[in-house]
Amino acid sequence: MNELNAGISSDVIRGYNDTMILYILKQEPSYGYEISKRIRSISEDKYIIKETTLYSAFSRMEKNGYIESYEAAGDGSGKKRTYYRISETGLKYYREKCNEWELTKDVIQRFIDGSSYLTMKGEENGNN
Amino acid sequence: MNELNAGISSDVIRGYNDTMILYILKQEPSYGYEISKRIRSISEDKYIIKETTLYSAFSRMEKNGYIESYEAAGDGSGKKRTYYRISETGLKYYREKCNEWELTKDVIQRFIDGSSYLTMKGEENGNN
DNA sequence: GACGATGCTACGTCTGTCGTGGTATGTGTA
DNA sequence: TACACATACCACGACAGACGTAGCATCGTC
After folding, report:
1. Could you tell me which of B74, B83, B20, B72 has the C-alpha nearest to residue B46?
2. How far, in Å, CA of B81 to CA of B71, rounded?
3. Neighbouring C-beta atoms of residue B52, cutoff 10 Å
4. Residue B63 neighbours by CB under 8 Å, 6+ apart
5. Which residues, other chains included, contact B75 with Cβ-Cβ below 8 Å and sequence gap of 6+?
6. Do B42 and A95 touch (CB under 8 A)?
7. Are A47 and B107 within 8 A, CB to CB?
8. What is the pLDDT of residues B32-73, one digit of tens each?
9. What's the pTM?
10. B contacts of A125 (beta carbons < 8 Å)
11. CB-based contact A13 B100, cutoff 8 Å
């Protein structure tokens, strides 16, 4: 099955892809392919962002002024890449999303049956 | 002033409205207006579900077999209401969403600055 | 009978995600 | 030379959930 993101529905991540990308760019400028790999590795393969999602996020965020792009050749090779760096606005946006996340997480958590059902190990699904 | 849900973007909640509704119905059958108020009160006014969102969730979930509806008059009045009760499938779905939530929460958290988990500094580094 | 609270529905728009498919360069290898 | 494969990016369009707007009907009250 193509469901690489096992157990993670994109509907939840929706709206947080931008945040993830900004988190990467906050550390240092980067480009599409590498960001995609970083996200995958940070999440320990639990989340793999789709290419189209990634690039549409780039153009959206650049339009919003959260990131800026510039052309550059990578290593010794002549391969051109589009690098992105985070802007001040982007950093501010990222921090807002972090705050929002704490809030939202708290709210959703109230509607989740947590530890109790997990401890009694009563899982009847073939999900993994 | 329609921004009643201060600080909470619907993009995050997206996909978890169903879960919230099922959480309410898991306790006892209920109907639209009351569920809406329950969600508002449980979240301490931090999240207020839109009417259209609520009712479209009903029809979606009924179509999926997660809930069942029945007509009933409420209190002494002759007002007809459409009550919903959760089904076995719905309960199973709810539990899956709970599991998914724990997973997703953990993943997103890795891209968020500001919590204590950062202080322990054991994060991903040059690990690739 | 005007009003607000309750209770529900129809219709259409918007936005983020993602499937499909395409372009182009660099590297390995046979 | 040929080819596969990883890298690197993009256009197009479909889809689904959230939501804005609008409407309808009932009930209690003043």
Report:
1. B20
2. 6
3. 8
4. none
5. none
6. no
7. yes
8. 999 999 999 999 999 999 999 999 999 999 999 999 999 887
9. 0.83
10. 92, 95-96, 99
11. no
